[in-house]
Fold this sequence. Notes:
With 182 residues, this protein is α+β, with helices and mostly antiparallel strands. It has a single domain, classed as Peptide deformylase (Peptide Deformylase), CATH 3.90.45. Helices cover 27% and strands 24% of the residues. It has three helices and seven strands. It has helices at residues 28-43, 124-137, 148-166; strands at 48-50, 60-63, 70-81, 84-88, 98-102, 105-111, 117-123. The strands form two sheets. Strands 1-2-3-6-7 form a five-stranded antiparallel sheet. Strand 2 and strand 3 form a beta hairpin. The protein starts with 27 loop residues before the first helix and ends in a 16-residue tail after the last helix. Residues 171-176 have low confidence and may be disordered.
Amino acid sequence: xxxTSLKIRIFGEPVLRKKARPVKQVNDEMRNILNQMSxxxxxxxxxxxxxxxxxxxxxxxxxxxxxxxxxxxxxxxLKKQGSGVMEEGCLSVPGVCIKIKRAKKVLIKxxxxxxxxxTIEAEDLLxxxxxxxxxxxxxxxxxxxxxxxxxxxxxxxxxxxREKAENEGLSESETKSCKLQL
Length: 182
């Protein structure tokens, strides 16, 4: 994997719809990818990023919702509790904001970047970010949560993103969308 060419993939790129492959071995290459993902997430003012969002079909996420950086491999949600609705944006679907109902609390099981098993109890914003990033690992995007009305409202923006994904990509100013960038 060429990590020097990692960049955020946008709506319309096939890698965003693939189910991410489990990581079989945690090694220096995986740690390097996680480090690059963290850098890209921070540079893009995001608070979460999944490997498919940078073109890598591997089950890895980075998250920093203000309480420190998590670098997780093969994350799974073991338990969900409660629910709440919040507007979400996505670094891979810039300019589109969608209200999404998610669990308020989650219990996550994963490997850290050293290969050790970790269990994380998260709530509120952190729980939301983990759920959003784990959705990416399943090929699911925020637009999949949109109502029929919302899909009609955003269809022009999505068509434009698809065309840009096929052609030149986005300019820096086009990558900002909602308050909550995941």
